[in-house]
């Protein structure tokens, strides 16, 4: 709606620098004053006496307008009034009893027919649109969006770190499992080699050997028997042969 109004405004007043927001803000001020002027005219028309002319009516309307407060003592936007006075929002329908200035309140009852107390109709030259967001609200909204983005970013980092830690733990567990498997295989091969060596030691033919060599293999066989007896899988130990007591 405001785009159309702004386009027509620029067409009628070439070179203008007013924006849609500027026109909307200006209309808010005019809308309020036009509504007050409409009320003042309605009161003046209700107070019209036979023999009085329209000049007296305008004077009374100006007095009613100034009595409503708001800082302005008189209404000056008569050209604007000529444009909107036949719109449904501002049209004046003379009704009600005669009133006297300073004796009857400006509003006769709580159910006033003032157009300011009712929503703008379709006949209004400007349709009511949502109020633009203020600077503070915009900053707060931007800050809120930024905080949400930061929170989401931190949550994503935490999630990625959790995934990385979990993968690292699984990798370490897998490596430990492999190390344990390799250790079991090495132990199996060591025992297998030791069994083979023990079997060869026990089956060694020493009949053609010298007495010293025969004594060596005899001690080796004894060491094998000792380990098998006490379930000692350690290596053969023949260092005691170097002991001078044997």
From TrEMBL:
Disordered, as annotated region: 105-150
Pfam families documented for this protein: NAM-associated
Coiled coil: none
Composition skew (Polar residues), residue ranges: 109-124
Name of protein: Zinc ion-binding protein
Transmembrane segments: none
Database matches in InterPro entries: NAM-associated_C (IPR029466)
Domain of life assignment: Eukaryota
Organism in which the protein naturally occurs: Prunus dulcis
Limits of the No apical meristem-associated C-terminal domain: 73-223
Basic residues composition bias: residue spans: 133-144
């Amino acid at each position: 709606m405001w785009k159309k109004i702004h386009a027509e405004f620029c067409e009628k007043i070439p070179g203008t620098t007013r924006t849609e927001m500027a026109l909307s803000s200006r209309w808010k001020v005019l809308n309020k004053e036009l509504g007050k002027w409409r009320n003042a005219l309605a009161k003046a028309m209700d107070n019209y006496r036979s023999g009085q002319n329209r000049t007296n009516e305008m004077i009374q309307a100006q007095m009613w307008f100034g009595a409503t407060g708001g800082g302005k003592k008189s209404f000056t936007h008569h050209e604007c009034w000529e444009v909107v006075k036949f719109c449904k929002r501002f049209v004046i329908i003379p009704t009600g009893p005669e009133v006297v200035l300073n004796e009857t309140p400006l509003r006769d009852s709580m159910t006033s027919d003032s157009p300011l107390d009712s929503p703008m109709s379709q006949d209004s030259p400007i349709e009511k649109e949502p109020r633009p967001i203020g600077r503070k609200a915009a900053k707060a909204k931007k800050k809120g969006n930024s905080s949400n983005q930061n929170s989401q970013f931190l949550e994503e980092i935490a999630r990625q770190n959790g995934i990385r830690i979990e993968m690292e733990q699984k990798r370490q567990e897998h490596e430990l499992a492999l190390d344990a498997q390799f250790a079991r295989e090495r132990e199996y091969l060591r025992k297998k080699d030791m069994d083979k060596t023990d079997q060869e030691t026990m089956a060694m033919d020493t009949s053609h050997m010298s007495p010293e060599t025969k004594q060596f293999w005899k001690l080796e066989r004894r060491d094998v028997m000792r380990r098998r007896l006490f379930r000692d899988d350690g290596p053969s130990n023949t260092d005691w042969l170097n002991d001078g007591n044997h």
